[in-house]
Protein backbone atom coordinates (compact mmCIF):
# COMPACT_ATOMS: atom_id res chain seq x y z
CA UNK A 1 0.00 0.00 0.00
CA UNK A 2 1.22 3.54 -0.67
CA UNK A 3 2.20 5.67 2.30
CA UNK A 4 1.24 9.28 3.00
CA UNK A 5 3.02 11.40 5.58
CA UNK A 6 0.84 14.26 6.78
CA UNK A 7 2.07 17.05 9.02
CA UNK A 8 -0.51 18.75 11.22
CA UNK A 9 -2.82 15.74 11.27
CA UNK A 10 -4.42 16.64 14.60
CA UNK A 11 -6.99 19.03 13.14
CA UNK A 12 -8.53 20.59 10.04
CA UNK A 13 -7.18 19.68 6.61
CA UNK A 14 -4.53 17.32 7.97
CA UNK A 15 -6.97 15.18 9.94
CA UNK A 16 -9.49 15.15 7.08
CA UNK A 17 -6.71 14.18 4.65
CA UNK A 18 -5.69 11.32 6.96
CA UNK A 19 -9.26 10.04 6.88
CA UNK A 20 -9.45 10.43 3.09
CA UNK A 21 -6.22 8.53 2.42
CA UNK A 22 -7.26 5.87 4.95
CA UNK A 23 -10.56 5.38 3.11
CA UNK A 24 -8.51 4.20 0.13
CA UNK A 25 -6.28 1.99 2.23
CA UNK A 26 -3.12 4.12 2.30
CA UNK A 27 -0.71 3.62 5.19
CA UNK A 28 -0.23 6.80 7.18
CA UNK A 29 2.50 8.66 9.04
CA UNK A 30 0.66 11.28 11.06
CA UNK A 31 2.38 14.11 12.86
CA UNK A 32 1.47 17.01 15.10
CA UNK A 33 2.29 18.32 18.57
CA UNK A 34 -0.88 17.15 20.36
CA UNK A 35 -0.19 13.49 21.03
CA UNK A 36 -3.62 12.77 22.54
CA UNK A 37 -5.26 13.80 19.26
CA UNK A 38 -2.79 11.70 17.28
CA UNK A 39 -3.61 8.72 19.50
CA UNK A 40 -7.35 9.25 18.97
CA UNK A 41 -6.89 9.39 15.20
CA UNK A 42 -4.68 6.31 15.26
CA UNK A 43 -7.38 4.47 17.22
CA UNK A 44 -10.00 5.57 14.72
CA UNK A 45 -8.08 4.51 11.62
CA UNK A 46 -5.77 1.69 12.59
CA UNK A 47 -8.37 -1.09 12.33
CA UNK A 48 -8.31 -0.56 8.57
CA UNK A 49 -4.87 0.85 7.72
CA UNK A 50 -1.32 0.92 9.08
CA UNK A 51 -0.77 4.09 11.12
CA UNK A 52 2.42 5.50 12.61
CA UNK A 53 2.09 8.62 14.75
CA UNK A 54 4.96 10.99 15.47
CA UNK A 55 4.59 13.72 18.06
CA UNK A 56 6.66 16.37 16.38
CA UNK A 57 7.07 20.13 16.28
CA UNK A 58 8.01 20.90 12.68
CA UNK A 59 10.03 23.92 13.86
CA UNK A 60 12.59 21.58 15.46
CA UNK A 61 14.86 20.63 12.55
CA UNK A 62 16.87 18.10 14.55
CA UNK A 63 13.79 16.34 15.90
CA UNK A 64 12.32 16.19 12.40
CA UNK A 65 15.53 14.74 10.94
CA UNK A 66 15.79 12.19 13.78
CA UNK A 67 12.18 11.09 13.36
CA UNK A 68 12.57 10.60 9.61
CA UNK A 69 15.87 8.77 10.09
CA UNK A 70 14.20 6.44 12.61
CA UNK A 71 11.20 5.54 10.44
CA UNK A 72 10.58 1.79 10.68
CA UNK A 73 11.32 -0.16 7.49
CA UNK A 74 7.65 -0.60 6.63
CA UNK A 75 7.14 3.19 6.67
CA UNK A 76 10.23 4.26 4.75
CA UNK A 77 8.85 4.10 1.22
CA UNK A 78 6.76 7.26 1.43
CA UNK A 79 4.70 8.10 -1.67
CA UNK A 80 3.16 11.40 -0.64
CA UNK A 81 4.30 14.10 1.77
CA UNK A 82 1.57 16.55 2.74
CA UNK A 83 3.23 19.63 4.23
CA UNK A 84 0.13 20.91 5.96
CA UNK A 85 1.23 22.02 9.46
CA UNK A 86 0.89 25.76 9.68
CA UNK A 87 -0.89 28.65 11.26
CA UNK A 88 -1.79 32.30 11.13
CA UNK A 89 -1.54 34.60 14.14
CA UNK A 90 -2.17 38.27 14.83
CA UNK A 91 -5.06 39.35 12.56
CA UNK A 92 -4.55 42.99 13.63
CA UNK A 93 -2.60 45.51 11.49
CA UNK A 94 1.16 44.97 11.13
CA UNK A 95 2.01 47.97 13.26
CA UNK A 96 0.16 46.46 16.23
CA UNK A 97 1.41 42.86 16.31
CA UNK A 98 3.88 41.21 18.65
CA UNK A 99 7.12 40.40 16.88
CA UNK A 100 6.97 36.94 18.48
CA UNK A 101 3.82 36.14 16.47
CA UNK A 102 5.60 36.98 13.22
CA UNK A 103 8.48 34.74 14.24
CA UNK A 104 6.11 31.88 15.09
CA UNK A 105 4.49 32.05 11.65
CA UNK A 106 7.84 32.15 9.85
CA UNK A 107 9.26 29.37 12.05
CA UNK A 108 6.24 27.13 11.40
CA UNK A 109 5.06 27.90 7.86
CA UNK A 110 8.47 28.49 6.30
CA UNK A 111 11.19 26.90 8.43
CA UNK A 112 9.01 23.99 9.54
CA UNK A 113 7.94 23.17 6.01
CA UNK A 114 11.53 23.36 4.83
CA UNK A 115 12.70 21.15 7.72
CA UNK A 116 10.28 18.37 6.85
CA UNK A 117 10.89 18.67 3.11
CA UNK A 118 14.67 18.48 3.53
CA UNK A 119 14.43 15.40 5.72
CA UNK A 120 11.96 13.65 3.40
CA UNK A 121 13.45 14.40 -0.03
CA UNK A 122 15.73 11.34 -0.11
CA UNK A 123 12.78 9.09 0.78
CA UNK A 124 10.54 10.59 -1.91
CA UNK A 125 13.28 10.44 -4.54
CA UNK A 126 13.83 6.79 -3.63
CA UNK A 127 10.13 6.20 -4.31
CA UNK A 128 10.45 8.00 -7.66
CA UNK A 129 7.64 8.04 -10.22
CA UNK A 130 4.28 8.73 -8.61
CA UNK A 131 5.72 10.33 -5.48
CA UNK A 132 4.50 13.78 -4.56
CA UNK A 133 4.98 16.67 -2.20
CA UNK A 134 1.80 18.61 -1.55
CA UNK A 135 2.36 21.92 0.18
CA UNK A 136 -0.47 23.87 1.79
CA UNK A 137 -0.19 27.42 0.61
CA UNK A 138 -3.07 29.88 0.77
CA UNK A 139 -4.87 32.52 -1.24
CA UNK A 140 -3.12 34.83 1.23
CA UNK A 141 0.13 34.06 -0.60
CA UNK A 142 -1.18 35.68 -3.77
CA UNK A 143 -3.74 38.24 -2.64
CA UNK A 144 -2.96 40.93 -0.06
CA UNK A 145 -5.51 41.84 2.62
CA UNK A 146 -5.42 43.84 5.85
CA UNK A 147 -3.91 41.76 8.64
CA UNK A 148 -2.32 39.34 6.17
CA UNK A 149 1.22 40.74 6.64
CA UNK A 150 3.61 37.91 7.56
CA UNK A 151 1.07 35.10 7.16
CA UNK A 152 0.55 35.94 3.48
CA UNK A 153 4.28 36.34 3.01
CA UNK A 154 4.95 32.87 4.43
CA UNK A 155 2.45 31.41 1.97
CA UNK A 156 4.06 33.30 -0.94
CA UNK A 157 7.23 31.51 0.13
CA UNK A 158 5.40 28.17 -0.03
CA UNK A 159 4.31 28.87 -3.60
CA UNK A 160 7.74 29.86 -4.88
CA UNK A 161 9.50 27.10 -2.95
CA UNK A 162 7.12 24.60 -4.53
CA UNK A 163 7.93 25.83 -8.04
CA UNK A 164 11.67 25.91 -7.37
CA UNK A 165 11.58 22.40 -5.93
CA UNK A 166 9.97 21.22 -9.15
CA UNK A 167 12.94 22.54 -11.13
CA UNK A 168 15.45 20.66 -9.02
CA UNK A 169 13.40 17.46 -8.91
CA UNK A 170 13.21 17.19 -12.69
CA UNK A 171 14.02 13.62 -13.66
CA UNK A 172 13.31 12.13 -10.23
CA UNK A 173 9.62 11.53 -10.85
CA UNK A 174 8.73 13.46 -7.68
CA UNK A 175 5.88 15.91 -8.23
CA UNK A 176 5.29 19.12 -6.30
CA UNK A 177 1.99 20.93 -5.83
CA UNK A 178 0.98 24.04 -3.96
CA UNK A 179 -2.66 23.75 -2.90
CA UNK A 180 -3.87 27.21 -1.92
CA UNK A 181 -7.26 27.28 -0.23
CA UNK A 182 -9.37 30.29 0.56
CA UNK A 183 -11.59 30.52 3.62
CA UNK A 184 -12.09 27.13 5.23
CA UNK A 185 -13.77 26.38 8.53
CA UNK A 186 -11.25 24.54 10.70
CA UNK A 187 -9.49 25.52 13.92
CA UNK A 188 -7.49 28.02 11.84
CA UNK A 189 -9.35 31.14 13.05
CA UNK A 190 -9.49 29.90 16.63
CA UNK A 191 -5.68 29.68 16.51
CA UNK A 192 -5.34 33.00 14.69
CA UNK A 193 -7.39 34.78 17.37
CA UNK A 194 -5.70 32.88 20.21
CA UNK A 195 -8.82 31.03 21.28
CA UNK A 196 -11.62 33.49 20.50
CA UNK A 197 -14.40 31.06 19.57
CA UNK A 198 -16.92 33.89 19.08
CA UNK A 199 -14.64 35.61 16.54
CA UNK A 200 -14.15 32.33 14.73
CA UNK A 201 -17.91 31.64 14.64
CA UNK A 202 -18.56 35.19 13.43
CA UNK A 203 -16.14 34.85 10.49
CA UNK A 204 -17.93 31.78 9.17
CA UNK A 205 -21.48 32.96 10.08
CA UNK A 206 -24.02 33.40 7.28
CA UNK A 207 -21.79 32.13 4.48
CA UNK A 208 -20.59 28.80 3.16
CA UNK A 209 -16.87 28.34 3.81
CA UNK A 210 -14.89 25.40 2.52
CA UNK A 211 -14.81 22.44 4.88
CA UNK A 212 -11.72 20.44 5.77
CA UNK A 213 -13.08 17.52 3.75
CA UNK A 214 -13.25 19.67 0.60
CA UNK A 215 -9.52 20.31 0.74
CA UNK A 216 -8.76 16.73 1.79
CA UNK A 217 -10.49 15.62 -1.41
CA UNK A 218 -8.27 17.94 -3.47
CA UNK A 219 -5.15 16.68 -1.70
CA UNK A 220 -6.12 13.08 -2.36
CA UNK A 221 -6.99 13.84 -5.99
CA UNK A 222 -3.61 15.46 -6.63
CA UNK A 223 -1.74 12.62 -4.90
CA UNK A 224 -3.48 9.95 -6.95
CA UNK A 225 -3.25 11.45 -10.43
CA UNK A 226 -1.32 9.39 -12.98
CA UNK A 227 2.43 9.72 -12.41
CA UNK A 228 2.98 11.82 -15.53
CA UNK A 229 0.70 14.65 -14.36
CA UNK A 230 1.92 17.45 -12.09
CA UNK A 231 -0.57 20.05 -10.87
CA UNK A 232 1.68 23.02 -10.12
CA UNK A 233 -0.79 25.05 -8.11
CA UNK A 234 -4.42 24.63 -7.18
CA UNK A 235 -6.23 27.67 -5.80
CA UNK A 236 -9.58 26.76 -4.26
CA UNK A 237 -12.10 29.23 -2.85
CA UNK A 238 -15.63 28.92 -1.56
CA UNK A 239 -18.06 30.08 -4.23
CA UNK A 240 -19.21 32.80 -1.84
CA UNK A 241 -15.70 34.27 -1.39
CA UNK A 242 -14.24 36.65 -4.02
CA UNK A 243 -11.86 39.62 -4.11
CA UNK A 244 -12.27 43.20 -2.92
CA UNK A 245 -11.45 46.24 -5.07
CA UNK A 246 -8.38 48.38 -4.34
CA UNK A 247 -8.93 50.77 -1.45
CA UNK A 248 -7.96 54.48 -1.53
CA UNK A 249 -6.82 56.63 1.36
CA UNK A 250 -8.47 60.06 0.86
CA UNK A 251 -8.09 63.46 2.56
N1 LIG B 1 -8.41 27.17 7.22
C1 LIG B 1 -8.09 28.02 6.26
O1 LIG B 1 -8.87 28.96 5.97
C2 LIG B 1 -6.85 27.84 5.48
C3 LIG B 1 -5.74 27.18 5.97
N2 LIG B 1 -4.60 27.08 5.22
C4 LIG B 1 -3.42 26.37 5.66
O2 LIG B 1 -3.75 25.00 5.80
C5 LIG B 1 -2.92 24.38 6.79
C6 LIG B 1 -3.79 23.64 7.78
O3 LIG B 1 -4.63 24.58 8.41
P1 LIG B 1 -6.06 24.22 9.02
O4 LIG B 1 -6.33 22.78 8.92
O5 LIG B 1 -7.03 25.17 8.47
O6 LIG B 1 -5.81 24.67 10.54
P2 LIG B 1 -5.90 23.87 11.94
O7 LIG B 1 -5.54 24.87 12.97
O8 LIG B 1 -7.20 23.19 12.05
O9 LIG B 1 -4.74 22.78 11.81
C7 LIG B 1 -3.40 23.15 11.83
C8 LIG B 1 -2.53 21.93 12.04
O10 LIG B 1 -1.16 22.35 12.03
C9 LIG B 1 -0.49 21.77 13.13
N3 LIG B 1 0.64 22.58 13.57
C10 LIG B 1 0.65 23.91 13.83
N4 LIG B 1 1.87 24.29 14.28
C11 LIG B 1 2.64 23.17 14.28
C12 LIG B 1 3.98 22.90 14.64
N5 LIG B 1 4.80 23.86 15.10
N6 LIG B 1 4.45 21.64 14.52
C13 LIG B 1 3.63 20.66 14.08
N7 LIG B 1 2.36 20.84 13.73
C14 LIG B 1 1.86 22.09 13.85
C15 LIG B 1 -1.56 21.62 14.20
O11 LIG B 1 -1.23 20.55 15.07
P3 LIG B 1 -0.73 20.70 16.58
O12 LIG B 1 -1.30 21.97 17.13
O13 LIG B 1 -1.24 19.47 17.26
O14 LIG B 1 0.75 20.73 16.49
C16 LIG B 1 -2.77 21.26 13.38
O15 LIG B 1 -2.83 19.86 13.19
C17 LIG B 1 -2.08 25.51 7.37
O16 LIG B 1 -0.83 25.50 6.75
C18 LIG B 1 -2.87 26.76 7.02
O17 LIG B 1 -2.03 27.89 6.92
C19 LIG B 1 -4.54 27.62 3.96
C20 LIG B 1 -5.59 28.28 3.44
C21 LIG B 1 -6.84 28.42 4.13
O1 LIG C 1 -5.07 30.90 4.62
C1 LIG C 1 -6.18 31.14 5.01
C2 LIG C 1 -7.23 31.74 4.21
S1 LIG C 1 -7.32 33.39 4.53
O2 LIG C 1 -7.73 33.61 5.94
O3 LIG C 1 -6.04 34.05 4.27
O4 LIG C 1 -8.38 33.91 3.58
Automatic annotation (TrEMBL):
SUPFAM superfamilies the record matches: NAD(P)-binding Rossmann-fold domains
Known pathway: Organosulfur degradation
Catalytic reaction list: 2-hydroxyethane-1-sulfonate + NADP(+) = sulfoacetaldehyde + NADPH + H(+)
EC number: 1.1.1.313
Keyword Iron recorded: no
GO molecular function, one term: oxidoreductase activity, acting on the CH-OH group of donors, NAD or NADP as acceptor
Keyword Transcription carried by entry: no
Keywords, alphabetical: Oxidoreductase
InterPro entries from the UniProt entry: NAD(P)-bd_dom_sf, Sc_DH/Rdtase_CS, SDR_fam
SUBUNIT field: Homodimer and heterotetramer.
Family: Belongs to the short-chain dehydrogenases/reductases (SDR) family.
Protein name: sulfoacetaldehyde reductase (NADPH)
Organism: Halomonas ventosae
Amino acid sequence: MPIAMITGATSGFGRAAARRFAADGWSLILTGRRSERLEALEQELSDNVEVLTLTLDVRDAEAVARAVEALPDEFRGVTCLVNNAGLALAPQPAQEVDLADWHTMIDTNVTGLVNVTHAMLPRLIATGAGASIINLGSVAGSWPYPGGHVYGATKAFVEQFSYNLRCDLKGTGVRVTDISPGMAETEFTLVRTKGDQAASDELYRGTTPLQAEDIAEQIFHVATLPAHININRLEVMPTRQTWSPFTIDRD
